[in-house]
Amino acid sequence: MSGHSHWAGIKHRKGINDAKRAKIFTKLAKPIVIAAQEGGGNPALNFKLRLAIDKAREFNMPKDNIDKAIKRGTGESKEGNQIEEALYEGYGPGQIAMLIKTTTDNKNRTLGEVRNVMQKNGGKLVEGGSVSWQFEQVGNILIGSENKEKDQIEMDILESGAKDFQESDEGFVVFTVPQELQKIREYFEKNSYEVKDAGLIFLAKDLIEIDKNTRTSYENLLEALDEQEDVVEIFDNIV
User: Fold this and answer.
1) 210-235: per-residue pLDDT in tens?
2) pLDDT tens across 104-118, in order?
3) pLDDT over 80 at 140, yes or no
């Protein structure tokens, strides 16, 4: 299994300045709010909230910011409107299939902004269902491979009940059915693995290759989408 997830491009950036960091914290806070809205403010009892908090901590989001987002989600704080998730489907340059995940307090505004960025950068939005059938939602866990023999890691992955896996520069990427993400993540934690990342993603069922010019155009589109505060994750079907 393979595929790409662009977490708004920010995982690959170095030297983030204060303005950029503030925007990232805003992006990171919204999934925390949504998770707390749906399942309460205790991460021990709300796995989705735990994942959102872990993601925020990857970027050194201050504890006060995290606590404020949780309180907004549970209703303890009346700050701001209710936040919702919205998934938009589209095609980028070279007919790259795209799923654009957003978190927003105004779906009409977000739709207009995303559509405008797509049109200005060689892409287009399409009706729901036109692209999503090309993807499968799976659990995604990145585990470290330090101080572990490869044979042992592969044996443990099979023992965990994972659906599939692949080796990466950062360790091993383990894929699960969505309902087993929490159980399999906890399996690796109990077996002394470093869980570097975990969450639900959309994997493309079939991948396409693109040429250098198309890739450049697509990267420009990703940069422009990254500037949109409501865009939090982008999935595509390129090799």
Assistant:
1) 999 999 999 999 999 999 999 999 99
2) 999 999 999 999 999
3) yes
Domain 84-133+206-236, CATH homologous superfamily name and number? YebC, transcriptional regulation domain (3.30.70.980)
Strands (E), 122-238: 124-126, 135-143, 164-168, 171-176, 195-204, 231-236
Beta strands 231-236 and 4-6, pairing class: antiparallel
Domain boundaries, the chain: 7-74, 84-133+206-236, 135-204
Distance CA 62, CA 22 (A): 11
Backbone phi, then psi, for 55, in 5-degree steps?
Answer: -65, -40
Topology of domain 135-204, CATH: Alpha-Beta Plaits (3.30.70)
* Mean of pLDDT over the chain: 91
Is-above-0.85 flag for pTM? yes
| Burial class of 62 by CB neighbour count within 10 A (0 to 12, 13 to 18, 19+) | exposed
Q: How far apart are CA 206 and CA 85, in angstroms?
A: 26
In CATH terms, are 7-74 and 135-204 the same topology? Answer: no
For the purposes of burial, counting CB atoms within 10 Å of the CB of 95, is it exposed (0-12), middle (13-18) or buried (19 or more)? exposed
- For tokens 């589109």, the residue is 221
Report the C-alpha gap between 183 and 8 in whole angstroms: 27
